Amino acid sequence: MDYLKSALPSQIMSERGSNLVVINPGSANIRIGLASQDAPFNIPHCIARHTKQVPKRNVIDQMLNSQVTTAQHMDREKAYDVIASLLKIPFFPRKMGRVDGLNPHIIRKDLPFTWTNVYEEATNSSVSLETSSKDETGESLDPKEGTDSKELNASERKFKEFICGEEALRISPNEPYYLCRPIRRGHLNISQHYSMQQVLDDLRTIWDWILIEKLHIPRNERNMYSAVLVMPETFDNREIKEILSLVLQELCFGSAVVHQEGLAAVFGNGLSTACVVNIGAQVTSLICIEDGGALPSTGKTLPFGGEDISRGLLWTQRHHQTWPQIRTDVLTKPIDLLMLNQLKETYCEIKDGELDAVALVHSYEDKVSPGSHKTRLTALNVPPMGLFYPTLLVPDVYPPPPRTWFHDYEDMLEDTWHIDFSRRSDMSDTFYPNVNGGLPMWESYPVFSTKPKKEEKVGLAEAITNCILSTGRIDIQRKLFCSIQLIGGVALTNGLVAAVEERVLHAIPPNEAIDTVEVLQSRTNPTSVSWKGGAILGVLDIGRDAWINREDWIHNGIHVGSNKKYKDSYYLQAQAMCYMNS
After folding, report:
1. What pLDDT sits at residue 449?
2. pTM for the full model?
3. Which among 190, 176, 136, 145 has a CA at the least distance from the CA of 52?
4. Buried b (16+ CB within 10 A) or exposed e, 57-70
5. In what order do the strands lie in the sheet with 177-180?
6. Which carries the bigger pLDDT value, residue 371 or residue 528?
């Protein structure tokens, strides 16, 4: 304790964080790095595997229904009209016309993505379609050059067994690979097409690749490292158990600990109380934190995120007939989603009036070089407003997990466990917020349920308001309405803070004695703030009983009646709070 009080934070992080690997898994991206690093690696959470199956499927978890129904289309049109009226966008915009004569300085000249080189013998990880045989300096990339080996033809070249990260998203549809995303919409992506064993095997392969290629931690040294798992609130207990087994048994870490993503975000920004709104790529989750402890009853999940805004951007342009006549398909060509994400991050913001921009839109057609199309994009302020009017963001529909998957899991956090402290009256019996009346969260999760709860369909402003009001105490409500913390990549959207403040204030019922709403400015990059908080928590509680040793997990497990509870992040040492607020 005396050491923690006297040492500089940077000194503590450097000394204690060099053998702590902080892992914050998300649906679309994983943030991972040593606690001593300033920022994590942010890597697309996917893997492409080589296949000899004909015909092949480009994406293993194809949507059950990729078509928008008539009712959904009408709802989307209505949502667009409402948003356009609010933002004062003309219902009949001017004709687009040619853009050749426009000033070039208003165009951000993003280069087209390059197809990934899928062959083992390649010296570069990716090769441009136009210059596949030469690098940027004009030097030949031919593997036979400078050697005595004979020329390799296509039949002799060996495909890589698997490709991870962004390179997996940039594989040409013509190549014999299929893409897998082991986490989808905040849960393990288990379906009739994607077994639990395959999901876990893909996770292990991706994480092992990152540990070796990015962090340079070989398998035979992992026992000297500990893992801090910063888990999303959407995960249920069975999923957490599987992830722990993956980290301790398959990846061979010496020990591990679990922290809650929302709680870690608060610590990452040096706070103790906040309403954490995590707008990720595929899911938005909310939870209130009071004095360093999460309030489980306030947890909410909304089935949309940044990727839905990107898809909404594409729909908006097609609605206005501004999109080039190219085949853009985010389902079978993940590279198209990369392009849309880039356009969204560059041009979309929330502001009143017409918001147009001239951009380069790229086409990735089969067996041809990428094409660039100079295009005037319009109504760029509409897609991010889908956060408040979610019928604009028609969600994709994926197969539900097999129901038998739930019948054999153990609830690892029953209240019958030995606990060294008395439980506060406002704490639930389980580790993660359970918004569904005692059933596992997945039981009525909106994406997988046939009849999702209406509350989960609400927009962001109503969800934040309901989340805070559910605390039931006027004193903490007032504090939380002035302590809203936006995290996740979408939190970087220009104009979002003002929009949240304005719309949350209007969403508060008139009978509530609340007249002030404030979104706190993030001290850390909103994309990685939970990871940073996990690094701080991991360093500060490195000696606590919450850590699980690899041998204990493999030989004994963590079970009802044992003295060890793998993590209770609702209770934090006073020293940690003192450190964060100093």
Report:
1. 29
2. 0.81
3. 176
4. ebbbbbeeeeeeee
5. 162-164, 47-50, 177-180
6. 528
User: pLDDT at position 553, please?
Assistant: 87
Mean pLDDT over residues 254-278, rounded? 93
So what's the pLDDT on residue 249? 94
Token pair 């870490």 is found at: 253
Mean pLDDT, rounded, for 390-412: 55
Structure tokens at 189: 């992506």
Return d(Cα 85, Cα 465) in angstroms, integer: 24
What are the strands, taking DSSP E only, across 203-341?
Answer: 226-231, 255-260, 274-279, 284-290, 293-302
Say if strands 357-363 and 371-377 run parallel, antiparallel, or are unpaired.
Answer: antiparallel
Look up residue 401 and give its two tokens.
Answer: 């997990």
Q: Which residues contact residue 575 at a Cβ distance below 8 angstroms, ignoring those fewer than 6 apart?
A: 1, 4, 5, 540
3-state secondary structure of 403: helix
The predicted-structure confidence for 341-363, as pLDDT tens digits, reads as follows 999 999 999 999 999 999 999 99
All domains of the chain, ordered by start, with CATH?
A: 2-47+184-262+532-569 (3.30.420.40), 70-111+307-392 (3.90.640), 266-304+409-528 (3.30.420.40)
Average pLDDT, stretch 335-340? Answer: 95
Task: Give the helix/strand (H/E) hosting 183.
Answer: strand 183-184
What is the 3-state secondary structure of 284-310?
A: EEEEEEECCEEEEEEEEEECCCHHHHH
Name the range with the highest mean pLDDT among 262-266, 401-405, 573-577: 262-266
For residues 531, 537, 542, 543, the Cα torsion angle rounded to the nearest 10 degrees is -160
Rounded Cα distance, 202 and 361, in Å? 32
